[in-house]
Amino acid sequence: MENFFNKDLNESYDVVILGGGPAGCSAGMYAARDALSVVILEKNFPGGNMAITEHIENYPGFTEPVLGHEITEKFVKHAQKFGAVIRQGNCVEVIDEGVWKTVILEDGRKIKCKALIIATGSKPKKTGAKNEEHFIGRGISFCATCDGGFFRNKEVVVVGGGDSALEEGMYLTKFASKVTIVHRRNEFRAAKIIQQRAKENEKMHFMTPYTVEEVMGENTVTGVKLRNTQTNEVIDYKCDGIFEFIGWDANTDIFTDYIEMTNGGFIKASEDTVTNVPGVFAAGDVRKKGLMQVVTAASDGAVAAKMAEKYINEELKH
Ligand code: NAP
User: Which residues form the FAD/NAD(P)-binding domain (predicted)?
Assistant: First the structure.
């Protein structure tokens, strides 16, 4: 992938896209194809949560599972092929003066744009268990692909009952000797096909209905206290590590006084990605929606770029 660090940025673009995940890259590709000047600003590395997913097996057209970082590379190259520019940059503020919006970056650089596409995605939620903060990075992880290898022949707890918990749990069985899914209800939210696969995996164990009350250990995790959500009984459960997959919080902190959000902090925009602020569009996991997938993020990106093009070439010209 082209190195996108420390490269020049223009003073202005037609469209600035915040976030280089599937929504941002797709928006960049569509905007560039519509002959708009466009920059995708990514805070860390492109791909977002897609890049750190081990395998993606439900993106249409990819009949075989594809590695998250491989599909990321394809998304980035596809956007660049049509002229989208991708740069590293962390937006800390947007100053909206109507026709022009100014994106302020952490390092002080300022970039003007006519339309802004927010595709900043989301970050993993935490359980709030006692000692959780102390053990994050020391036995508690939110990324099986990144940290699974540290738990070879060890026992891990995976918290959550959705697709992520069960899929990442199965991935962890490649390393761990035992993976216990701890879920607060007896029914799982995960798709039936994923539940079935998880239940057929001999290394997978299930503790329901339980929540994690406390993480135990000194320098490393040695276990968890689990509370039964029906009886309130608390038990000690031995484990060497904890992976948390209990959903996501939107990366919208800097927009709270600027754009209308849901109570959960996701941007309110319907399928057309249009927000309450003229010229600002929300695409991907940052937008309140029913299904957060790579395919729906990519779809949002395409729609947002089209809406931005209409806004610039029709609304702003009147
Ligand atoms: P999710 O579907 O929102 O599931 C979160 C799980 O965590 C739920 O089971 C929820 O329990 C539980 N939970 C939430 N807060 C909790 C808390 N404070 N303490 C304990 N448990 C808590 O999240 P996800 O699994 O990360 O998936 C996010 C989106 O990505 C979904 O749309 C999913 O379909 C998609 N995804 C798809 C795939 C795939 O298709 N292969 C893979 C990964 C993710 P309740 O059920 O009781 O609410």
Answer: 13-301
> Is the pTM value of this prediction over 0.85?
no
Q: In the beta sheet, which residues pair with residue 250?
A: 122
User: Which three-class secondary structure state does DSSP give residue 128?
Assistant: coil
Q: Which helix (H) or strand (E) holds 32?
A: helix 22-33
Q: Which atom of ligand 1 is nearest to the CA of 127?
A: 18
Q: Are the beta carbons of 111 and 102 closer than 8 angstroms?
A: yes
Q: Is 60 exposed, middle or buried (0-12, 13-18, 19+ CB in 10 A)?
A: exposed
Other CB atoms closer than 10 Å to residue 109's CB: what's the count? 14
Give tens-digit pLDDT for 171-206. Answer: 999 999 999 999 999 999 999 999 999 999 999 999
Residues with Cβ within 6 A of ligand 1?
Answer: 58, 127, 159-165, 167, 183-185, 189, 211, 245-247, 291-293
CA-proximal residue: ligand 1, atom 39 (nearest): 163
